[in-house]
Design goal:
10 helices, globular, 223 residues
């Protein structure tokens, strides 16, 4: 592979690892904080439950994608993968640590293959039956590894990426224009204020007449 293409591959994978770390930080800061979970449950339980599952599914898929082999298929069906194995192969790097990580994430690769990217017959029906009672289906994540294990996998991805590129990039300290949390703190602040206002409104301790008139003219009134 030409040097330009190798650099593009490295930049593409770096971008994916950056997003992986940011999404993981948002996931942990949002759903692993018990007090914050109570706030979200009061504000919009179904919406945030869906967001939690979508974030976790995306993190699982990204981990699997990054640790895919350098290529898939054979003959005319052979396709190159945009993965860490491909990057190490092109750069002549040692993939020993990556091979060990690939073995560690087998449970989540199975989850990706049978329940997220596809709907395996036996697994899907078993999962449905296990989480259904009296006609009500529970909203469960069904992740086969712990939060700590997932964080460990992501840390190893960061280290492998730095080793491949001979860098010391702090992937778990990504800065965005609205902070390291991607604006999560701002959102939580708005939710707190809205729920507190709702509480005051019910108690009759605030004058609602002018507030509702001004709200009708607010720039985001149609959002």
């Amino acid at each position: 592979m030409e040097a330009t293409n190798i650099n593009t591959l490295a930049a593409s994978l770096k971008n994916e690892v950056v997003w992986l770390n940011l999404k993981w930080k948002i996931y942990r800061d949002t759903f692993e904080n018990p007090k914050r979970s109570l706030l979200l449950t009061e504000a919009a339980p179904i919406i945030f439950a869906i967001l939690q599952k979508l974030l976790l599914d995306d993190i699982v898929i990204t981990l699997c994608r990054l640790t895919d082999p350098a290529e898939s298929g054979q003959g005319r069906g052979r396709k190159l993968n945009n993965s860490l194995f491909r990057l190490l192969q092109e750069k002549g790097g040692d993939n020993t640590i990556l091979l060990k990580l690939q073995k560690k994430i087998k449970p989540i690769r199975k989850l990706r293959d049978k329940n997220i990217a596809h709907s395996d017959f036996d697994n899907t029906l078993a999962n449905f039956c296990n989480n259904t009672s009296n006609g009500v289906t529970a909203f469960t994540l069904n992740c086969p590894v712990t939060v700590e294990e997932l964080e460990g996998f992501i840390y190893e991805i960061n280290e492998i990426m730095n080793t491949a590129n001979n860098t010391k990039y702090l992937y778990n300290q990504i800065k965005t224009p609205i902070g390291q949390d991607g604006g999560l703190g701002i959102l939580i602040g708005h939710l707190k204020a809205a729920l507190f206002y709702k509480k005051l409104e019910k108690s009759g301790k605030i004058n609602l007449s002018s507030f509702h008139e001004e709200l009708e003219q607010y720039e985001h009134k149609d959002a």
